[in-house]
């Protein structure tokens, strides 16, 4: 296995235990040392003058942090807010919707368990129905996925909820076409992008989702407790604050009610958000598109070796269209709980 480009990354750029081979980056991520140092710098800056920092500098600092991230995502600052994690961002959206009994939320059987629970909670309160379209593996083509999923749409479908990259199966779903069809059909599209940012290039305006939330602490290697929620401008009037605070009916409103209501939720440490531009700068300076390709080659090689060991069938064709830096393989019949404990 050869690489045409050797990324200038070293193990000492992370704070990880050097005696541990860290393979589970997808769960919580690992923070780059220079990003962590910037994070701690912002924490010290806050503690040096808490009233000045939170009372007077907050709005300007948060705007700059949003603007930097928005430019990286090919959108504008007033279309997104920082949230602690993608689950929180998606809860903001799910719990803002006015759903009626019998309305359908269409999804797949590949979604993250916490969000399955979020939608079950919403359905228990509203009488809406959470419908999971079974997507068998191995998947074959993007078009087959799109048609199989779209066959689940009915006149009662109000919301489509999909992962961009799935948590249990690590598959990249072809969501751009699904979002296009959803908008044409008057169906709200909500995308769980928890594993996408940092693994694949994102252009949120081109993608076309009404709502999109992704973590920064996973594949962007930012501090824990950092994610974003993007809302298409035409949909921002639908979003209600999960925590009602001073931004609601503000005496000094900004041009964006969405930002006012979502950004200030009470006293909190915003250092993780303010460190985001440091991470973006790091990626630009270290050819991150090539790093992603190199990591994909490692995942590809690992997938081949595991498949050969057990004569196993991978979950998708061998293509960046279906997986990037994270890969899932089926296991032979075994006791999963015992295996996890080892």
Describe this structure in words.
- This protein has 342 residues and is α/β, with parallel strands linked by helices.
- It has helices at residues 25-28, 33-48, 50-72, 86-94, 113-126, 142-150, 175-184, 204-207, 257-263, 271-274, 276-285, 288-310, 336-341, and strands at residues 80-83, 104-108, 129-133, 157-163, 188-192, 211-215, 227-231.
- Strands 1-7-6-5-4-2-3 form a 7-stranded mixed beta sheet, with helices on both faces.
- Strand 2, helix 5 (113-126) and strand 3 (129-133) form a beta-alpha-beta unit.
- Helix 2 runs antiparallel to helix 3 (50-72) and helix 4 (86-94) packs parallel to helix 5.
- It is globular and about 60 Å long.
- The protein starts with 24 loop residues before the first helix and ends with a helix.
Question: What is the topology?
Answer:
Blueprint: H1 25-28, H2 33-48, H3 50-72, E1 80-83, H4 86-94, E2 104-108, H5 113-126, E3 129-133, H6 142-150, E4 157-163, H7 175-184, E5 188-192, H8 204-207, E6 211-215, E7 227-231, H9 257-263, H10 271-274, H11 276-285, H12 288-310, H13 336-341
Parallel strand pairs: 2-3, 2-4, 4-5, 5-6
Antiparallel strand pairs: 1-7, 6-7
Helix pairs in contact: 2-3, 4-5
What is the structure about, briefly put?
This protein has 342 residues and is an alpha/beta fold.
Into which percent range does the helicity of residues fall? Answer: 40-55%
Order of helices and strands: HHHEHEHEHEHEHEEHHHHH
Strand content: 5-15%
Task: Quote the average pLDDT.
Answer: 94
User: Outline, from the CA principal axes?
Assistant: globular
Q: Number of helix segments?
A: 13
How many beta-strand runs?
7
| Separation, N- and C-terminal Cα atoms | 30 Å
Radius of gyration in whole Å, from Cα? 21 Å
What strand order characterises the main sheet?
1-7-6-5-4-2-3
Which stretches are poorly predicted, pLDDT < 50 over at least 5 residues?
A: none
Largest sheet: 7 strands, mixed
Structural class of the helices, strands and pairings? alpha/beta
